[in-house]
Amino acid sequence: MERVKFKIENNPFFIWKTDLHVSHMNYGNHLANDKVLTLCHEARVRWLREKGFSELDIYGLGLIQSDAMVMYKSQGYIGDKISVEVSLGEFNLKAFSLYYKIVNLESDTEIARIKTGMLNFDYKTNSIANAHPDFLAYLEELKNV
Q: Which structural domain, as residue segments, surrounds residue 43?
């Protein structure tokens, strides 16, 4: 059976550390698949906020997620101290990819790799838009981290 497999090529430009909570668990008492994307979303929001942006306002445009891939590597449990590392993938005028690695900090075990496709989106016209030149320049800087 074919599995999703991908490498994270670039170094992380943002790292968020947290603990796994009971609300992150499923009935198997390990990290729930839907919470993996929730953790990535939280890391993305925190990165944007640190830069003075939000998912609804990056130089007047927002973001909308176009796709997601998750590659599970190991289980996460209540109380695990984790990091969510965010790296930049490919980008162009209209879109960019973010890669995330969730790592158990105590065992240095990779829990999951995630990729999200992000589109620059104009919520006023409800359409995909070209990124602001200053945001493209910022992404170019991140490429060299």
A: 14-143
